[in-house]
Automatic annotation (TrEMBL):
GO biological process: tRNA modification
EC number of the protein: 2.5.1.75
Record keywords: ATP-binding, Magnesium, Nucleotide-binding, Transferase, tRNA processing
Protein name in the entry: tRNA dimethylallyltransferase
Domain of life: Bacteria
């Protein structure tokens, strides 16, 4: 039998993190974060990382005392192990293929501990790579073409990519120039949309996908409140520190929140305008996330977290 895996998906600020912890406590689970921004160390406030602590020793999971995993410290949120957080420094590259390999390894380890793997996050392609066993074999790059593409603006690149791959353009992190360049490069070299080259393999897992559906007005209010909370938690200080060490042009600093605050720190906008841009761009990002997830008919959509508990209990029986 295939290992059972639970996936909790949805757009930003929908309540995925809290539900993942609740489910993990109920079933003796461990959470794997599926968020392409939380992998970066030191990028905490702007990525809305859950507040937790690094522990050593032993911990109670699902009513049973377990030794921690390996000699190094592990990250816990409300005594629930969380994986996929702080994997690389902000100036290191981290791809969907790397995450797929990492997540599959962690799922194997979690299952061996007789715990339940719970994938929680809103990066749709990363989730699909794991649960659909996507073929991520790479197309050889073309140095001349790559140089030509990298010389263009991000806006021009995305506009060109959208014409070649309309579906893929809704899925990709459009603020990440390196990924847009790569997707466009592959589409040009193969003559096929990049999204179509990521074919599904035989799934390795029996997966329950639970999607959190939130009323749009409520969601937008949550997004606005979250951004205000980030500012109160010294997002500007975090970005300033990262800017001094890495600059603002590396891939990780193109994410929502970091890009806009960088513009403020460089004198290209006011803080008020930067905050409004973060809210607007986050709303647009949430809309793209929902467009992605709504296409997947396997997702069980809920409006009340209690519905998730019923689904999980039935699934695990």
């Amino acid at each position: 039998m295939k290992p059972k895996v639970i996936a909790i998906v949805g757009c930003t600020a929908s309540g995925k993190t809290a539900l993942g912890i609740e489910v993990a406590k109920l079933v003796g689970g461990e959470v794997i974060s599926v968020d392409s921004r939380m992998v970066y160390r030191g990028m905490d406030v702007g990525t809305a990382k859950p507040e937790g602590e690094w522990k050593t020793g032993e911990i109670t999971i699902g009513g049973r005392i377990d030794q921690l995993f390996g000699a190094r410290k592990e990250f816990f949120v409300e005594d629930i192990p969380h994986w996929g957080i702080d994997l690389v420094d902000p100036d290191e590259e981290y791809s969907v293929a790397q995450f797929k390999e990492y997540a599959e390894k962690k799922i194997t380890e979690i299952v061996k501990r007789k715990h339940v793997p719970i994938l929680v996050g809103g990066t749709g392609l990363w989730l699909s790579a794991v649960i659909d066993n996507l073929d991520l074999s790479s197309t050889p790059s073309d140095d001349v073409l790559r140089e030509q593409l990298e010389a263009k603006s991000l806006g021009d690149l995305f506009h060109e990519y959208k014409k070649l791959d309309p579906i893929g353009s809704e899925q990709i992190d459009r603020d990440n120039k390196r990924r847009v360049v790569r997707a466009l490069e592959v589409s040009i070299l193969t003559g096929k949309p990049f999204s179509q080259l990521q074919t599904r393999g035989v799934s390795k897992y029996d997966v329950l996908q639970i999607g959190l559906s939130v009323d749009r007005d409520v969601l937008y209010e949550r997004i606005n409140d979250r951004v205000d909370e980030m500012i109160a938690k010294e997002l500007v200080t975090e970005v300033r520190s990262l800017k001094e060490k890495y600059g603002c042009t590396i891939e990780s600093m193109t994410g929502i929140g970091y890009r806009q605050v960088c513009e403020f720190l460089e004198g290209r906008s006011s803080l008020k305008d930067a905050i409004e841009e973060i809210k607007k761009d986050t709303r647009h990002y949430a809309k793209r996330q929902m467009t992605w997830f709504r296409r997947d008919e396997r997702i069980e959509w809920i409006v009340n977290p209690k519905e998730a508990i019923t689904l999980v209990e039935t699934f695990l029986k």
